[in-house]
Structures are given as structure tokens and as C-alpha cells.
Amino acid sequence: MTSILLIIFILLGFVLGRVSKKRKLTDKKAFTKSISNGQNLSIILLLTLMGYKIASNEEVLNSFATIGFHSILFGLATLFGSAFITFIILKLYKKFAHPENHKKLKNSK
């Protein structure tokens, strides 16, 4: 049932977006602002309900320390992994995308 409701609301949003585009709304900024406010309200409601559900679950509350530790490890691994990959990509970019290297590559052929 939840999946069907999700699909219905996604399709409803799609249809509303297409209708608003075809009608060429006179005050598009006001419409966009009202959509943005609705999204913010929905996110606040979602976070509130998630917090309530987490706080009411004893198993989650009892394992909060373990969850926090794993979250910190995951966050640090993501941070350092991204920095490492960025470093490697920049080194490769500087090596192969530099104009002098293009000249060297053309001359070596």
C-alpha cells in the first residue's frame, strides 16, 4: 500500500509540474516559493516523525553508543576516501591535461 501511495504522489507532483509549465503561470516566483515552503515543511515533518520513531524504540536507544561510533568511522572514512581520490584525480589531471604534455604526446607519435 505504501509503495502505491508513493507512486501516486510522485505522479501527482509530475502532473502538477507539467500543468504549471503549460499554463505559463503569471506569478512563477510566488508559485516556486510556495513549493519550496511546502518542501521545507515536509522535511521538518519527516525529521520530527523519524525522531519520534527512533526515540520510542528501546533497542535503538540501547545501542546508541555503537551506532554513534560506527557513524563517526563511516564519516571519517568517507571524508578521507574522498580527499584521497580527489588528490589522485588532480595529480592525473595535472599530468595529462597540461598543455606542455599535449605537445610532448603529439611529438612522440
How would you portray this structure in words?
- The protein is an all-alpha fold and 109 residues long.
- The chain folds into two domains: 1-62; 64-109.
- It has five helices and no strands.
- It has helices spanning 2-23, 28-55, 58-62, 64-97, 99-108.
The CA-CA distance between the termini, in Å, is 63 Å
- Give average pLDDT, whole number: 84
In total, the number of domains comes to 2
> Which word captures the global form?
flat
Helix run count = 5
Largest sheet entry:
none
Bin the strand percentage.
under 5%
List its salient traits.
109 residues, mainly alpha, flat, 5 helices
Give a summary of the structure in a few sentences.
With 109 residues, this protein is mostly helical. It has five helices and no strands.
Fold topology:
Layout: H1 2-23, H2 28-55, H3 58-62, H4 64-97, H5 99-108
